[in-house]
Amino acid sequence: MKENKREQELLVKGLGVFELRGLAREMGIPSPTTKKRDDLINLILEKAREGVSYERTEKRKGRPFKKLNSIDEIVNTMIESQTKQEKITFESLISFAQDFPMEEEICKDCKMDVYEGILRQDKDIFAFYSNGTFVFIDKAIEGFDKLRRGDKVKVEAETTVNKNKVAVKILEINGVELTKYQASKVENGEEIISNETLPFGENVVYVGRRNACSYDQSFIEENELSEILTYAQKNDIEIILLGVNTSYEDQLLLKQYDYINNFTTEYGSNAEKNFNKIIDAIFYSQNLIERGKKSLFIIIDIMEVLYQIDKTYGVNYYKMEHCDQAIVIMQKIMSLGKAYSDGRSSTVLLGYNNCDKENPFLVNEILKICKKIK
Question: What is the pTM of this model?
Answer without folding.
Answer: 0.78
